[in-house]
Amino acid sequence: MGNNLINAQGLLGKEVVALKDGSYLGKVQSIGIDPGEKKVIGVFIKLKGILSGKIFVPFSGIQAFGDHGITLKEDFDTENTAKGMEEKEILEMPVITINGTMLGKVDSFAFDKSNGAITEYILTEGLVRDTLKGKGLLRGESVSRIGKDVIIVAKEVDASNLEQVEMDYIDSEDDLGPEVVRLNVETEDTLREFKEEIKDTQESIEQNIEAGKSAAERGWQQTLQKVKKITEEWTEVIKQQADRVGGEAKELWSDAQAATHKQLEKINQVKEKWQDKLASIQHKKQDEFSEQLMDEIKDKTVNSPLYDDGGNPIILPGQIINNVIVKKAMEKGKLHQLFVLAATRDVEDQIEKIEK
Fold it and tell me: What is the pTM of this model?
């Protein structure tokens, strides 16, 4: 990786300092992307303090990307930031060919610090896992489009265009990837960070593989862990903060506490509904699925792609489950996995609601 390139993965969790007054604003939560231009346009910062929200800092407001943090220009006004700007996250996004073959998922990417152009994508899983036995590098010019749910490469690009990752991207003791970065920064008591902190480590994923679980089932188990962690951690945060609030603010905090408990109950209700549903079909053969049962997943969407045994997509992230997709999943023997993916997305949607 060249000296002018920034590894986006390494920015997550870094502290942000305003040169204007020397104040610490918070930490980098995610990277702002312009899909059409395929470039980085800024960073989203989780502001310090409880329930303090986040702001977007455009590329033009950044003074420097340092080894230990990011500095903002002296003339940058933190009061006039684009707080409502939509986030576009490409980490973990599938990268597919025009034929629907998944080359891998985005583990990280590098961009030019002079103009924000994304020059390299680091991929894992998919064909990368099979051909390069680890991580593969895809050049920025090979990408045709950054879509809503997947990244599509140019029509002439295939697995032969993937390169072995150089040492700059290999995890070291000081740079162990986004999960470890997030786990080692000072915990901000917000649901967004709880969600990031409870991502499974590579070790636990490998253990799941050893146990013979499908990718869909692993995703479902991760989501169940998220619900458990969010419920425990956020309940504790509310309790701790309630003890600190007094006077007129006490009543307002009680209202917020009640609303949050209601949202947590909704998450767990949806989770339990799907747990019962998945348990009921676990040992059923596909031809025993009734029309009424299959109606349970129609019009639902998924977060992860589902492929047949030949590597052909049955459904991609964001697609709506319809009769055609259900029929295809049944023909390929993947109906159980489709149910698991629908359940996972439904519960994840509830988690996103409470984060907002």
Answer: 0.49
